[in-house]
From TrEMBL:
Its EC number is 3.1.2.20. PANTHER family: 1,4-DIHYDROXY-2-NAPHTHOYL-COA THIOESTERASE 1, MEDIUM_LONG-CHAIN ACYL-COA THIOESTERASE YIGI. It comes from the Bacteria. Gene3D superfamilies: Hotdog Thioesterase. Keywords: Hydrolase. NCBIfam families: unchar_dom_1. It catalyses: a long-chain fatty acyl-CoA + H2O = a long-chain fatty acid + CoA + H(+); a medium-chain fatty acyl-CoA + H2O = a medium-chain fatty acid + CoA + H(+); a fatty acyl-CoA + H2O = a fatty acid + CoA + H(+). GO terms for molecular function: fatty acyl-CoA hydrolase activity. This is Medium/long-chain acyl-CoA thioesterase YigI. Pfam families: 4HBT. Belongs to the YigI thioesterase family. Residues 60-135 form the Thioesterase domain.
Amino acid sequence: MPTNIGTGEFKPADAGFEARVRDSFNRQPAMHLIGAVLATVKPGLCEVEMPRKPDVTQQHGFVHGGIVGMIADSAAGYAAYSLFPADATVLTVEYKMNLMAPADGDRMLARAQVTRHGRTLTIVAFDVFAEKSGKMLHCATGLATMMCMLGRPDAPRTAAS
């Protein structure tokens, strides 16, 4: 079992990783749409928070599973991206998520931690919690694989690209 999980022992390839990660996150219209914010960025670790909004609930009033997946995917992607060189971007290769309880809270928190960082692929474990009345309910867990796309700066697409 890796000994560096959660210890912050990962070293970013770019000293300016936090500003680069926050800038990239802030350019995501999807995160703005659901009200998500990047709460924590450390080497190999990221937390995304989101307030409960009626617009993102399902028919029973819980935060929709697809929205839970959105914040988990972003947290995992940016945990990996925090370790990438400045001239790279990140793309999700795949993720698998288990929904363990309804996402019933006033605030959602997705926490992602790199478990293995490779040259091209980075593996990230994530957990999602729903906070209600000061209590955190563990509602989802999963594993993601992220790709480091070297030589492709993390910049908005243009009409020609």
